[in-house]
Write a structure and sequence with these properties.
The structure is a homodimer. The first copy, chain A, has helices at about 5-20, 25-50, 60-70, 95, 100-120, 125-145. By secondary structure, chain A is an all-alpha fold. The longest helix of chain A has 26 residues, at about 25-50. Helix content of chain A is about 70%, strand content about 0%. Chain A has a single domain, classed as Four Helix Bundle (Hemerythrin (Met), subunit A). The interface between A and B is medium-sized, with 28 and 26 residues.
Chain lengths: ~150, ~150
């Protein structure tokens, strides 16, 4: 692992279990879907900028990159044990059958979003676009395996 | 205003309008409800700790305080002009009739959550609890006026 933010370590140490102890599975599912909504809300305009569908705005891109770096570690509590069912969800049950592989993919998301936030502070458009694609790859790699179509 | 984070300034300068240009009112409403879900998810365990209903955990409290400080500025885009209707919402239409007053209340939330994140890094339990109550006051002050029961 390239990078282990405090949030990830704290999570691994049991925040997940604590948080879940206070929440029913449907609340956990609602939480993770909400976190994904916020991630998508910020990811969308960045993707449009990278694809040239929206005017490049380095300041807005950096703001959203910072948000993604803060949001990424927050999805972990949304996949607490026992939240494989309880409400309509696109999360495949394989997530809870392969916790180590899933955790590795979450770590990738956390690392790539942190790297994007860091590089966005430089204002280097080419590097920001390059790192955004790596982040998008981390999203896609996990969705391909663990998210229902 | 005690404190004006870059996010707030950027928002006031037009991110709100930009973001909304890409989203239908129902998407904006879904976004703001998702942001509130994340805020509530983190606020809940902190409130339980402050009320003595959950064992005090300064590290977990500080982690959640940091999250709230990152989330608070993100609610602003969720109240974009035109998102007073379009889906079921507890947000009262008065929000869009009193934009300056509403903005002041959002600023309070941003400031108090930032102050909480700062004080949480000190690990001083009494100060953390005191500042948490100020943050809760900022939430309540806005909900009382602008959130349907």
């Amino acid at each position: 692992m390239k990078f282990a933010p405090a949030a990830v370590i704290a999570f691994a140490a049991g925040i997940c279990a604590n948080a879940f102890a206070q929440h029913k599975p449907e609340a956990v599912i609602h939480y993770r879907q909400s976190a994904m909504t916020l991630i998508g809300w910020n990811f969308g305009p960045m993707s449009a900028m990278v694809k040239g569908k929206h005017e490049w705005d380095a300041k807005d891109f950096a703001l959203r990159a910072e948000r993604l770096a803060a949001l990424a570690p927050q999805i972990e509590e949304g996949f607490a044990k026992g939240s494989d069912k309880g409400a309509e969800t696109d999360a495949k049950p394989e997530i809870w059958k392969n916790p180590e592989d899933f955790q590795a993919k979450v770590n990738d998301l956390v690392n790539e979003s942190k790297a994007l936030s860091d590089v966005a502070r430089s204002g280097d458009e080419a590097k920001m676009k390059e790192q955004f694609k790596k982040l998008a790859g981390a999203c896609g790699s996990c969705h391909d395996k663990y998210k229902a179509d």
